[in-house]
Amino acid sequence: MPALLLALYATTFSFAYTRLTTGTGALIMFGSVQATMLIAALLAGERPHASQWLGLGVALAGLAYLVFPGLSAPPFADAALMGIAGFSWGMYSLRGRRTADPLVQTANNFVRVVPFLLAVSVVALPRFHLEVSGLLLACASGILASGLGYVAWYAALAGLTATRAAIVQLAVPVLAAAAGVMLLGETISVRLVLSTIAILGGIALAVVGREGTPGAGL
User: Fold this and answer.
1) pTM for the full model?
2) 3 contacts 113 by C-beta, under 8 angstroms
3) Which of 40, 52, 68, 94 could form an SS bridge with 206, CB 3.0 to 4.6 Å?
4) Where are the domains of the chain?
5) What is the DSSP code (8-state) at residue 69?
6) Are 163 and 42 in contact (CB under 8 A)?
7) Total Cβ atoms within 10 A of residue 69
8) Which pLDDT tens digits describe the chain residue by residue (218 residues)?
9) Where do runs of H (alpha helix) occur along 68-131?
10) For residues 174 and 60, is the Cβ–Cβ distance under 8 A?
11) Cβ of 99: how many Cβ atoms within 10 Å?
12) DSSP state at residue 73
């Protein structure tokens, strides 16, 4: 099941971003993730405290402010695909909270997902083009960035409720922006600083806020 969710996430995410702007895609993606994980948490019996709802609202507002310049009305099909990607990632994260060995589980998921992605790749055969540099970058992205990142995420999930896990993920755009500044020489703007303060402040509110009734079913 986790491998199927991972394949669905990777496939829909990749196709959706061919016609979505970065900002629009990020809002749809993270909004879908939050909705999926929070609804699952509520159904399992978690009752987030008011400070957690406030933290979520502040963090989402910060995300909206960060990506606002790139927002545009999305094509319905691509928006739907990105929504499915967010749902899949949310469910994949929820499954990870029950993982005893994050490294083994992630490795197994990556191996099992290969047949699904190869089948989907057949659709792109007419545009197939391969270069050594691209192959090396893809391997580095998949094995190092994604592989190790997913292992770390699964390890972290063990100590988080579903509600907190959902909200903590909103730090991803901030980390990506920080990497752009450090590695690509991108400019630190007032918008970036203010949105970072809002997102991290909202996450802090959610993490340190008093927890409601925990759910055992996730």
Assistant:
1) 0.80
2) yes
3) 52
4) 2-208
5) G
6) no
7) 11
8) 788 999 999 899 988 888 888 778 888 888 889 889 888 888 888 888 888 888 888 888 888 888 777 777 778 899 899 999 999 999 998 888 777 788 888 888 888 888 888 888 887 777 777 788 888 888 887 777 788 888 888 888 877 888 888 888 888 888 877 877 787 777 778 888 888 888 888 888 887 765 554 444 44
9) 76-96, 102-121
10) no
11) 18
12) P
Residue with the two structure tokens 């450090």? 182
User: What is each CA distance from 109 to 29, 59, 77, 124, 197, in whole angstroms?
Assistant: 21, 30, 27, 23, 35
**Tokens 């391997």 sit on residue:** 139
Q: In terms of residues, how long is the chain? A: 218
Please name the residue that has the structure tokens 């079913």.
217
Return d(Cα 178, Cα 187) in angstroms, integer. Answer: 10
Alpha-carbon torsion (37, 41, 42, 47), positive or negative: negative
Measuring CA to CA, which residue among 21, 37, 11 is closest to residue 161?
37
Q: Tokens for 157?
A: 């999930």
Residue where the block lists tokens 């402040």: 201
Amino acid at 178: A
